[in-house]
Amino acid sequence: MCYTGGMDSENTKRQIEAALAKLLPSPEGEAAALHAAMRWAVEGGGKRVRPLVCLAAAEAVGGAADDALMPACAIELLHSYTLVHDDLPAMDNDTERRGRPSTWAKFGEDTAILAGDALQALAFVALAKTPVSCPGVRAGLLSILGEAAVGVVRGQAAELSGSKDVAYVYGHKTADLFVAAARMGATAGGGTAAQVERLGTFALHLGLAFQHEDDLLDGDSPLGRAEAEPTRRSPCSSACPATRPSFRTSLPASPRARPSDWIHPRMWRLRRFFIVRQADTPTDSISLARRLGWCRCARGTGGA
Amino acid sequence: MCYTGGMDSENTKRQIEAALAKLLPSPEGEAAALHAAMRWAVEGGGKRVRPLVCLAAAEAVGGAADDALMPACAIELLHSYTLVHDDLPAMDNDTERRGRPSTWAKFGEDTAILAGDALQALAFVALAKTPVSCPGVRAGLLSILGEAAVGVVRGQAAELSGSKDVAYVYGHKTADLFVAAARMGATAGGGTAAQVERLGTFALHLGLAFQHEDDLLDGDSPLGRAEAEPTRRSPCSSACPATRPSFRTSLPASPRARPSDWIHPRMWRLRRFFIVRQADTPTDSISLARRLGWCRCARGTGGA
Question: What ipTM was reported for this prediction?
Answer without folding.
Answer: 0.82
